Give the backbone structure.
Amino acid sequence: MANVKVGSRKTFLGRNIWNSLLAPRSLVWLVLSVPFCVFPAVAPSQDLPIVEAPESETSSDQPSVDPRPAGSISGTVLDGSGAVVVGARVILTRGDQSPPQEALSGDRGQFVFPNVAPGSFQIQIAAKGFAPQTSSGVLHGGEVYFAPPITLVPAGVDTAIEVTVPGSQVAEEQIKAQEKQRVFGVVPNFYVTYVANAVPLDAKQKFELAWKSTFDPVTFAFTVATAGVEQAQNDFAGYGQGAQGYARRFGALYADNITSTFIGSALLPVLLKQDPRYFYKGTGSTGSRILYAIANAVICKGDNRRWQPNYSAILGGLASGAISNLYYPPGSRGTALVFESTLIGTGETAVMNVFQEFVIRKLTPHAPSSASASPSKPSH
C-alpha cells in the first residue's frame, strides 16, 4: 500500500464508495478502511524532493541607485542695481562628489540645471568685473528648486600704489651726493652728475649749487694761489706789483669766477630752463665718448631732459667777459677780448669734459657707483 500512488487510490474509492454504503455489514469495513484512505496519501509525500527557492542575486559591488526622482535647480543672476547679468558662469557642485555641471546665465540672467539628483548642492557664480558669489541648498526628490536671486557686487580694483617723492627732494639728495665729489678728495667737482637720468634742478637748487661751488674754501684757496702765480709772472701788468697789485689780481679772478658761475650756471639756466651740469656718459667706444664730451661744451640737457644748444654757458661767458671790462686794466679790455675769452673758455670746457669722461672719476673717491645710478622715481 505504501507504493500505491495517491492518484490510483482516489480512483478506487470513487468507484466503490456507493456499494460499501449500501451493504449493512460493510459499515465496519468502511470504518476500518478510513485510515487507509487518508494517512497513506500523506506518507508518500515525505519522499517528494524539496526544492529551495533560489537566493536573490545581489552584488555589493554594484552602486545603489537612489530611488528618489531627480529634480531641477534654477535661478537668476543680478547686479547691484537689480539689472540682470548675462553670460555669468554658474557652476553646480553636489555633496556626493559627482562631476560639477556648468551653465551660463541667459539674456534674462536666468540659469537652470535639469535632472539633478537630490541632495545637498552648492552654486558658484563668476562674471567679469564682479566678485565671485556662492549659494548653497538642499534639493529634495522630484523638487523644482528656485534659488533666491543672486546679486553680484563689483570686484575690488587692485591698485598698485607707487610711493613717490617730490622731484625737488630727489634732486636735493643728488646734489648732496655731488657735493661729496672732490678730486683727490679735495678739489670740488660739483657740476658733474654720474646719474644718467638725474632729476632736473629747480631754480633754488641751481643757485645753491652755484653758491656752494663759488664759496667753497678750496675754490677760495685756488684763487689765492692763481693770483700769486699771475703776480709772479706779472700778468695784467696794469695792476702793478705789491700787495695792491696782488689784491687786484685776486679780486679780478674771484669776480670772474662769481660772474661766470652765477650767470652761466644759475641765472641763465633758470631763465632758459637748462641744466648746468655735465652728464657723465661712461659707456660706449672711446671715440663716441670723446665726441660726447667735446659736444657737451656747446650742448646741454634742458629741464625737459632733451638735448639743446647750451645757450646758458655761451651767453654766460660773454656776459662775464663784458662785466670784466669794468675791472681789468685798460690794455686787457675790449669787445674782441670778450669773444676771445669766451671762445677760449669753451675750448677749455671741452678739454675738461674729456678729462671728466676718462680720468677725473677715477680720482674722485665719493663718485656714485653704477648701482646708485637709478634714483627714486620722482613725482611731477
Observations:
- The chain has two domains: 71-151, 165-379.
- Residues 165-379 form one domain.
- The two ends are 129 Å apart (CA to CA).
